[in-house]
Amino acid sequence: MFPWLFIFIILIYIIVKRSDIVARIGHLRHAKGNTSGALKAFDLANKIGNMSLHNKISYGYILLRFGKIDEAGKILTMVSIQAPAKKPIIKYRARAMLALVMWKRGELTDAIETLEGVFENYRNTIIYQSLGLMYLEKRNKIRALKFCLEAYEYNDQDKIIIDNLAEEYVLNGDLAKAKEMYEKLFTLESHFPEAFFGYGKLLIELGERKRGIELVTQALDKPFMFLSTITREEVERYLENL
């Protein structure tokens, strides 16, 4: 009888947890760079229902990467409301993702205020990345530089944090330090277009025109996502105007 009982328990677990099992497939696909496959898996898990709040946050992020702002906002708002008081990190993570939704809606001030509220209670590399990026977009040089330096102290190996600090040094006119940060960034084998575009523009400004144009051109070969801070058209226009 025991084997049958064991099999019965396993079947019950699979039935109850089937949406999270499918979501796990989505996580694995996303880790392998298959974002479209990840979205399909999360869509299915959501249709099955009863997905965990942690997986719903991941689903919201995947939706946002594909530019599905309204769907992402709906999922993340629901998680923020449903998050149990005993597990505040769930609420903080959902609110941090909602800030990205606000940012992409053009609500930069609200996005910053939301992230600052999260930052007071919960900090991780992603929040340092996002808030640093938003301070840069707000063009508050003093505040942005102070925060980007704090973020760098928190994690000096994260590519986006390094890129944020390099860009902030450029905005503050400290091109030597900006170049130092970009050189470190490229030792980490960066593959996002912002790094190539930013470093290329800096080198052109410093008189290293040939190498700079090469890097800006290489930016066009990198994947542009909805959450990218530059567009392919922006890079193309820059090259045309050189």
List the helices and strands and how they pair.
Blueprint: H1 2-16, H2 18-31, H3 35-48, H4 53-65, H5 69-82, H6 88-104, H7 108-119, H8 125-138, H9 141-154, H10 159-171, H11 175-187, H12 193-205, H13 209-219, H14 232-241
Describe the structure.
- This protein starts with a helix and ends with a helix.
- The chain has 14 helices and no strands.
- It is mainly alpha-helical and 242 residues long.
- The protein has a domain at 18-122: Tetratricopeptide repeat domain (Serine Threonine Protein Phosphatase 5, Tetratricopeptide repeat).
- It has helices spanning 2-16, 18-31, 35-48, 53-65, 69-82, 88-104, 108-119, 125-138, 141-154, 159-171, 175-187, 193-205, 209-219, 232-241.
- Mean pLDDT is 89; it is low at 5-16.
Dominant shape: globular
The whole-number mean of residue pLDDT values reads 89
| Number of distinct helices | 14
| Overall number of strands | 0
C-alpha Rg, in Å? 21 Å
The fraction of residues in strands falls at under 5%
**Main sheet characteristics:** none
CATH superfamily of the domain at 18-122: Tetratricopeptide repeat domain
Helix content: over 70%
What is the CATH C level class of the domain at 18-122, in words?
A: Mainly Alpha
Helix and strand string, N-terminal first? HHHHHHHHHHHHHH
The third-level CATH topology of the domain at 18-122 is Serine Threonine Protein Phosphatase 5, Tetratricopeptide repeat
The CATH architecture of the domain at 18-122 is Alpha Horseshoe
**What distance separates the N and C termini?**
78 Å
Q: Which class of secondary structure composition applies to the elements?
A: mainly alpha
Low-confidence residue ranges? 5-16
